[in-house]
Design brief:
This protein is mainly alpha-helical. 54% of the residues lie in helices and 10% in strands. The chain has helices at 6-14, 18-33, 42-54, 60-72, 81-93, 98-109, and strands at residues 2-3, 38-40, 76-78, 115-117, 128-130. It is elongated and about 55 Å long.
Length: 141
């Protein structure tokens, strides 16, 4: 099995660079033909959502659909697949980024009772606790 870097996965999915897309397609097809899968680490999926959102202006609905398809695709082996699924489920209806929910899921898996954060988008998210933004003496930090 080989692991794919985010840039290879982006070329494979977007097909926006003819030369790099051809090479990404070829390596995936070569591995599938050999009866193997390509490994995608959870961090690759975090980077993927960021790249697709920021560089390609992909909507959240399309990001969720893309991650669902990747999880269901037989040519990919997903590292931490259960954590990725948990994070994706929270991301579907949450206000924060996919990576934030993956961090929370990873922390819970590793025995943390909660993840503390300053990110207001996680205010009502399960497993997160907001820390006050007030610094010493009541001033905003």
């Amino acid at each position: 099995m080989i692991g794919l870097d985010t840039n290879v996965l982006v070329r494979y999915l977007t097909q926006d660079d003819p030369d790099q897309s051809r090479r990404a397609n070829a390596i995936v097809a070569e591995r599938v033909a050999a009866g193997e899968r390509c490994f995608l680490g959870a961090i690759v999926l975090c980077e993927l959502t960021w790249v697709l959102r920021e560089a390609y202006r992909t909507s959240k609905a399309d990001l969720v659909r893309t991650l669902d398809l990747i999880l269901a695709t037989r040519q990919f082996e997903i590292g931490g697949k259960d954590l990725v699924r948990e994070a994706l489920d929270a991301y579907r209806t949450g206000r924060a980024d996919f990576a934030d929910y993956l961090i929370g899921a990873s922390h819970r898996h590793d025995g943390c009772e909660e993840t503390v954060t300053f990110d207001r988008r996680l205010r009502d998210a399960t497993g997160f606790r907001m820390l006050s933004r007030q610094g010493p003496g009541g001033s905003n930090a």
